[in-house]
Design goal:
- It is found in: Cell membrane; Membrane.
- Residues 42-293 form the G-protein coupled receptors family 1 profile domain.
- This is Olfactory receptor.
- The protein has one domain: Rhopdopsin 7-helix transmembrane proteins (Up-down Bundle), CATH 1.20.1070.10.
- It has 13 helices and 2 strands, in the order αβααβαααααααααα.
- It has helices at 3-11, 25-52, 59-86, 95-128, 133-136, 139-157, 159-165, 182-186, 194-227, 232-240, 243-265, 271-296, 298-314; strands at 12-14, 92-94.
- Helix 3 packs antiparallel against helix 4 (95-128), helix 4 (95-128) packs antiparallel against helix 6 (139-157) and helix 11 (243-265) runs antiparallel to helix 12.
- The longest helix has 34 residues, at 95-128.
- The termini are far apart.
- The model is unreliable at 1-9 (pLDDT under 50).
């Protein structure tokens, strides 16, 4: 093994923009800039509306704010490398910076999954026991749930940088994506990655997999409760309060499953397809979640419309 090559590959990785078409990278700069702008504006609007409107100071909207903050944080985790490639045509990323980005991307992914579980619990309590909803989900309990979700993410992702740093890298240092992922960097190692693979599988099963089952079980209980309501109008009203959360769950898990399936079984597919799915998985939910909640949640929609009408009248 060439020690110089090993040291060089330890020192940095090369990120990939549009596979096989590096000259086309600048064409992605403006669409990506537009998506990041939408993410900041959409989630910022949600946070501002909930802060200003006193009637939105309820558990459901506090959880929505936590989701918005998580979406922004997840987007900002990918922003530096995306800008580096598509805006400045600089695909090289230092090893430590790559590992740091890896930690935050995986960490905020686990946080988002946990927040979606918390929101499922919120909907269950609201429908199962509406009279005691506010007294059960107090500010203190919501804060504790948020801390538990964050602590869980930190604990399960914390070993990842150390698992990567212990590996020798003497093969190619070219990554498959525009940002750093554990499974992507792991495949470049020239030693056994069994421990990394096993740990990654355990984390996915005990976080994303378990969270998906809990959300499914929550909606089974919600559906059982709703079917017990005598009035058809009340049943529809109760289910309608869950639509936004269901959309958020689908926006998170469908791209995740799609990216996983393409990575696992789509070896024969074009690298562009892999790049597209990987970017959709991280960029789509933060952009669409605030749009979904703005459209489907009447108080938020009403407040946004009032703001735009006020500006129009002032003009």
């Amino acid at each position: 093994m060439n020690s110089n090559a090993s040291q060089t590959n330890h020192h940095s990785f090369i990120l990939t923009g549009i596979p096989g078409m590096p000259d086309k990278n600048p064409w992605m700069a403006f669409p990506l800039g537009f998506l990041y702008t939408l993410t900041l504006l959409g989630n910022g609007t949600i946070l501002a509306v909930v802060k200003v409107e006193q009637n939105l100071h309820e558990p459901m909207y506090y959880f929505l704010c936590i989701l918005a903050l998580t979406d922004v944080s997840l987007s900002m985790s990918t922003l530096p490398s995306m800008l580096s490639i598509f805006w400045f045509n600089s695909p090289e990323i230092p090893f430590d910076a790559c590992v740091t980005q890896m930690f935050f991307i995986h960490g905020f992914g686990v946080v988002e999954s946990g927040v979606l579980v918390s929101m499922a619990f919120d909907r269950f309590v609201a429908i199962r026991d509406p009279l005691h909803y506010a007294s059960i989900l107090t500010h203190g309990l919501i804060g504790k749930i948020g801390l538990v979700v964050l602590a869980r993410a930190v604990c399960v992702v914390f070993p990842v940088p150390f698992l990567i740093k212990r590996l020798p890298f003497c093969h190619s240092n070219v990554l498959s994506h525009s940002y750093c992922l554990h499974q992507d960097a792991m495949r470049l190692a020239c030693a056994s990655t069994r421990v990394n693979s096993l740990y990654g599988l355990i984390v996915v099963i005990l976080t994303l997999g378990l969270d998906a089952l809990i959300i499914l079980f929550s909606y089974v209980l919600i559906l059982k409760t709703v079917l017990g309501i005598a009035s058809r109008a009340e049943r529809l009203k109760a289910l309608n309060t869950c639509l936004s959360h269901i959309c958020a769950v689908l926006l998170f898990y469908i791209p995740l499953i799609g990216a996983t399936m393409v990575h696992r079984f789509g070896k024969h597919l074009s690298p562009v397809v892999h790049m597209f799915m990987a970017n959709i998985y991280l960029l789509l939910p933060p952009v669409l979640n605030p749009i979904v909640y703005s459209v489907k949640t009447k108080p938020i929609r009403r407040r946004i419309i009032q703001v735009f009408r006020g500006r129009k009248n002032m003009a």
